[in-house]
Amino acid sequence: MKNWKTSLAGLITGVPVAIDALINAYTAGAFTGKSGVQLIAGIGIVLLGLFTKDKNVTGGTVKQ
C-alpha cells in the first residue's frame, strides 16, 4: 500500500464491481463471460488502487 488515499479510492471503486459480479454469478449458478470479466476488472481496480502512489508522494518516506 503506497498511499492510503489511493488505496481507499481503489477499494471504494473496485469492491462494488467485484461484489456485483459475484452476486450475478451466484444467481446465474455459474460465471458467465460478462460476470467473469467484471470480477477480473473489479480485482484489477482494487490492485491498481493499492499499488499506485499519490501525485505528491516521492519514492522515499518524506513528502516534498
Task: Outline the secondary-structure elements.
Elements (H helix, E strand, L loop, with lengths): L3 H25 L4 H19 L13
Helix pairs in contact: 1-2
Description:
The chain has one domain (4-51). It is mostly helical. Helix 1 runs antiparallel to helix 2. The radius of gyration is 15 Å and the shape is elongated. It has helices at 4-28, 33-51.
**What count of helical segments does DSSP give?**
2
**Percent of residues in beta strands?**
under 5%
| Overall spatial form | elongated
Largest sheet: none
Tally of structural domains: 1
DSSP E strands, number: 0
User: What is the string of SSEs from the N terminus onward?
Assistant: HH
The helix fraction, in percent, is: 55-70%
